[in-house]
Amino acid sequence: MTDCILGTRTLPMDDAWDVIVAGGGPSGCAAATAAAREGARTLLIEATGALGGMGTMGLVPWFCGYSDRKQIIARGLAERIYDACREGTPHAKKQLAANPLASLAIDPELLKRVYDKMVLSAGVKVLFQTQVCAVEKDTENTVGALIVANKRGLSAYRAGMYVDCTGDGDLAAWAGASVEKGDAAGKMQPATHCFMITNVDDYGLSNGPRIHYYDPASPMHKALQDDAFPLIVELHSCSMQVGPGAYGFNTGHVFDVDNTDPESVSAALMQGRQMAAQYRDAFAKYHPAFANAFLAATGGLLGARETRRIMGDYRLVVEDYLAARSFPDEICRNSYGIDIHWSKEQTLAFTRKSIEELKQINTQLARPLKPGESVGVPYRCLTPHGLHNVLVAGRCISTDRQTNGSIRIMACCLTTGEAAGLAAAMAAAGGRNTHKVDTERLRQKLKAYGAFLPDAPASGKA
To answer: Which of 199, 307, 321, 418 has its CA 20 to 30 A from that of 166?
Structure first.
């Protein structure tokens, strides 16, 4: 591409907002709700036609990371979402009654309605099918407006405070925030294009081989050796029942894709759809429960695990995670394992290991904390260095690469989102500087809304 000057134009401007949230995934829904319930005039801008991000449009089939394996620690708005989904999913409600800390299946249509109800009840204004495409700055440190594109064409929206919940850190990066991306060489984890298969024999699946590769009878092992399925080249396979005869699959990898590169994403989505069809056919061939199965849907979003990390006033690092560290300004706790998916070369080598070796490698990689342990996420991870009226939440907050593999899950996106939205409302009401928010007052407000923020020993703080 080459640069060109297309002349000047005048855009319509809507400056009626205290807080604008970019991105309607879990962090964006929580941020917008938290800001609006404080009385801030809040606009939520979402590029697709539904809220929920990867849990709805992306078809990720379950919530994980809600507990520290002793209790639920993703509370506040996160627990409100969890409870609403549990109550609306009969089979999951029954399973969770037996094991309250089990992973919760996601019915994507239910979750869309749950998010809709949450943001609307708080008074949030939502703009669907609207893409943030540029950032205008008033000063070096201050965002002045967002340029968006939708069926009206281009228009501008101005607020006192902005919360970047785009996952990829688009708003903050375009405003000039410091960014890390991928590993030291810029390589990123592979993506997954999730899908849903229906008309599965529930009884046959529950009483037959597991799809997971830990089961030596899994159809994954046979599909890998079958030339009829050339796109099935490795063993990554996770699934969850999301309804009667309906199963969501977070299965397979699309390698060497960059979610900030439109050409790369376009190619990955087309490859992912072909992969999903091959998985359905392989399961039907090698597992009786899938004999009449139907590929019902593939995600409208690609499951990107990693792109930009926006550098804030603090960078949460793996040493913090392993020490289960606490912080005086922490705004949530997280206990999910370090989940870094390998490169194509590493993944292909992984397929040649025995099942016992695979289990051992997975445990070593994840380095889970002990039951009851968790790490604090400081507010300073949400405040981009050098920007006064921008906060970030969700996958793109300030961490190193390994810790990002833990905090990127939906539960932590919801809790960081709630904190960012509340802080944005506080800053909009006075000062408009995220770096000067009274974090003790922020923490007390979060606790009043149900957040899990236990007092920690002074020696464990940083």
So the answer is: 321
